[in-house]
Amino acid sequence: MTFFDLPVETTVEKRAYRHFRKYLIQEGFIMLQQSVYSKLVLNGTTANLLKNRIKKACPTKGLVQVLTITEKQYANIDIMVGFQQDKVLDDDSRLTII
Description:
The chain is 36% helix and 15% strand. The chain is of the alpha+beta class. The radius of gyration is 15 Å and the shape is globular.
């Protein structure tokens, strides 16, 4: 999971925000909430490589945090207010066999 709080007061800051958000989407992240994105990876090695790529893509200002949790921990999220999204990949449709 990636959390970010980036300034958007100047044109340069807005551009950096858009660039970082687009980068996350191109890397396969999905938006959970505004400025909270998540991506499922296969193992810890892949997670570390992804964290290094995110670190290189971070804007110079603001706050970007990455939290690594297991799929089982993620599945235990309790929704207190609001509703659960219907667009959840809970089958093997994300699996690619070569």
